[in-house]
Write a structure and sequence with these properties.
Blueprint lengths: L1 H21 L1 E13 L3 E10 L15 E15 L5 E11 L6 E3 L2 E10 L3 E6 L5 H38 L3 H14 L3 E9 L17 E5 H4 L12 E6 L5 E10 L6 E4 L1 H7 L7 E7 L1
Parallel strand pairs: 1-3, 8-12, 9-11
Antiparallel strand pairs: 1-2, 2-6, 3-4, 4-7, 5-6, 8-13, 9-12, 10-11, 10-13
Length: 289
């Protein structure tokens, strides 16, 4: 009788110890940069993992709590799942979730992690009462941008007038040639290469997408600098499978660092419209509108 009670006690202690060992994870992030969407918070910076035993969670995982400690030189501002604005240069995000940070842009120093808002249980920042100041700053920036755009428009008008005066001195034939050249420059770009598929999240263009969206990522050589939004963002691309003639139209939303110039990376939904997932790589023609 005593032996059986002792065994039960040992089992209970083991179960309790196992549960306690699995609930605590921590990510400390220096020089943090944050961007929030309706579904996730993306955090980039120097990320230190406190507990190497923590494993990525799934929707079925329970009893896992992660503290994400953020520090930044600049003020961070973002909304949680309840549309509550949080701000400060030091924040703590608590979530019933865990995931291993991953590299981006091919650098070990550049790491990021995506925290699903539905798993966030608490957010605290050291300047959570300065929402009004944040709003005022945003309005000021908006006004500044509007002024810059207005100035640009005025400048372009002056340039157009000067060009028109010069053009009138030339013959009709020269005018016709110029128009023809201009329409050629604005025609569709055509590339012949390959198509693959990827798992979307927040793309280089700044928007959040998922597997069901009809989007594409272009090569770095076409996209340009990652420090600003590319002129290709939002453009439509028609992709045609050479093997079966099937086509799909997608919107440029991201950049593919590992792709060469003629390689286009598609969302799973778009790829499935023109080929089989088992194939993995398709030979395609694609046209940018």
């Amino acid at each position: 009788m005593q032996l059986s009670q002792t065994c039960i006690l040992v089992v209970l202690m083991a179960m309790l110890g196992h549960t306690l060992a699995d609930i605590s994870c921590k990510l400390s992030i220096e020089k943090a940069k944050i961007r929030a969407s309706d579904s996730h918070i993306r955090i980039r910076g120097r990320i230190d993992i406190d507990n190497e035993d923590c494993k990525p969670t799934t929707n079925k995982t329970k009893d896992v709590t992660t503290q994400v400690l953020l520090k930044s030189k600049k003020n961070l501002s973002f909304k949680d799942a309840n549309d509550v604005v949080h701000s400060g240069n030091e924040c703590t995000i608590t979530a019933a979730w865990y995931n291993t940070p991953d590299e981006y842009r091919g650098s070990k120093k550049s790491t990021q992690v995506f925290v699903p808002l539905r798993f966030v249980t608490d957010v605290k920042c050291n300047k959570d009462n300065t929402d009004t100041a944040s709003t005022t700053t945003a309005v000021t920036k908006s006004r500044t941008r509007t002024r810059r755009r207005t100035t640009t428009k005025k400048t372009s008008k002056k340039t157009t007038r000067k060009t028109t005066k010069k053009t009138t001195k030339r013959t009709t034939k020269k005018k016709t040639t110029k128009k023809s050249s201009s329409s050629s420059d604005n025609s569709n770009e055509h590339y012949s290469g390959q198509a693959t598929f990827f798992t979307p999240n927040q793309g280089a263009c700044g928007d959040w997408n998922d597997n069901d969206d009809y989007i594409a990522a272009l090569s770095g050589s076409l996209y340009g600098s990652y420090s600003k939004k590319s002129s290709y963002c939002g453009k439509k691309v028609k992709v045609v499978n050479k093997a079966n003639g099937k086509s799909v139209t997608v919107t440029v939303k991201d950049a593919c660092e590992s792709c060469d110039k003629t390689h286009i990376d598609l969302s799973p939904a778009a790829f499935g419209e023109i080929g089989d997932y088992d194939t993995g790589i398709l030979k395609v023609d694609w046209y940018v509108y």
